[in-house]
Design a protein that fits this description.
The chain has 356 residues and is of the alpha/beta class. It is built from 12 helices and 12 strands. The strands form 3 sheets. Strands 1, 2, 5, 6, 7, 8, 9 and 11 form an 8-stranded mixed sheet that branches.
Length: 356
């Protein structure tokens, strides 16, 4: 007789794209035809997350930042997403604190070079885990649960076993009071491959709910996401749009990067592999961001959704995504804050990286 599996069932399943689309559709449907739909998608980008934190702050100062019906996040955007979802003065202050005062030592520690060949990553992410515990408190998670009815909060990882994007319903996890899983998913969602170690999470997927699998930063597949899921909402959104009295649906994307191609000598640093990995990840962030934006733009257009995005226009500090210098991050924050006060948006993404 087979032994009964006494492990607790995973209540909040991880989602593939189609299931995410269905869940997102329910959020849109719940708003009713008379309410504007506002979606915020925050990209990856390491320390450049300070730009989005600043933009949200400046937008709030304008006085017309909406309460978002859906918030999605990738990598550093996943760490910001719960706080942006809540959108209070307290959470805005927390974002400012994280993205203007945190130092590199509070995000990661360098490993001894002799240990690197036997490690799952070049860097030790224990400080990042502690940073998440400090700022994503039980109070924050409880607030997400309380405000989650009829709204959506999603972050993404990549399953190393099959290389596919996995989307996590953070409202469900919060309402299940699984505080440890909530934080662990955020850690996995920001685990840049090679730089940070992968995180083992219980799959939660329909086919193997109890199996543990290794997860890394969702930026490996998407830099900002809503993509195919938006296209599947097109019929519903077009029906809303056929009535001129119905407020529009808007998708806002905040890109934590410059989307520029500039010549820089490679700094190989204390371990040459780290210099190569740093530059490779930076290139990936830029290229994947442009590809993700193009897909968002095309599918938003098809669905009749107003698409707006913003990105870092200029930055004179250290361009490396993993150099968490408070002075540089404060400059990025203030740059975003200035644009947020102006509520300046772009509507058409570039086809390739902009010239330096």
């Amino acid at each position: 007789m087979a032994r009964k599996d006494e492990r607790p069932e995973v209540r909040c399943r991880a989602l593939r794209s189609g299931e995410f689309a269905q869940g997102a559709a329910e959020v849109v449907r719940a708003q009713g035809p008379a309410k504007a739909i506002n979606v915020l998608a925050i990209s990856g980008g390491g320390k450049y997350g300070a730009f989005s934190a600043g933009y949200l702050s400046g937008w709030a100062e304008r006085g017309d930042r909406p309460s978002f019906d859906v918030v999605t996040g990738i990598s550093t955007g996943s760490l910001m997403a719960p706080l942006a979802f809540l959108g209070t003065e307290e959470t805005d202050a927390a974002l400012r604190n994280i993205y203007t005062t945190v130092t590199t030592d509070q995000v990661y520690k360098k490993r001894m070079w002799v240990s690197i060949p036997f490690s799952k990553s070049l860097l030790n992410a224990k400080p990042l885990e502690e940073l998440i515990e400090t700022h994503i408190t039980k109070k924050v998670i409880k607030a997400v649960a309380a405000q989650g009815d009829g709204r959506g909060l999603y972050v993404a990882t990549v399953d190393l076993a099959d290389g596919r994007l996995v989307i996590w319903d953070m409202v469900c996890i919060a309402q299940a009071k699984d505080y440890a899983l909530f934080r662990k998913v955020l850690l996995a969602a920001s685990a840049v491959p090679m730089a940070f170690p992968p995180v083992k999470l219980k799959s939660g997927l329909r086919d193997d709910r109890q199996k543990h699998r290794w997860h890394v930063d969702g930026g490996l597949r998407e830099n900002v996401f809503w993509r195919r899921e938006l296209a599947q909402l097109s019929h519903m959104l077009k029906a809303r749009g056929s009535d001129p009295s119905v407020p529009p649906a808007r998708l806002y994307a905040l890109i934590n990067g410059q989307m520029r191609s500039t010549y820089r000598e490679v700094d190989f640093g204390w371990v040459p592999m780290i210099g190569i990995a740093r530059r490779s990840v930076g290139t990936m962030i830029s290229e994947v961001a442009i590809g993700s934006l193009q897909k968002l733009y095309a599918e938003a257009f098809e669905a009749g959704v107003e698409f707006r995005f913003n990105y870092v226009r200029h930055f004179d500090g250290n361009p490396e995504w993993d150099d968490f210098d408070p002075q540089d991050m404060t400059a990025l924050f203030e740059h975003g804050r200035e644009l947020g006060r102006l509520e300046h948006w772009e509507t058409t993404p570039p086809d390739e990286p902009l010239d330096g």
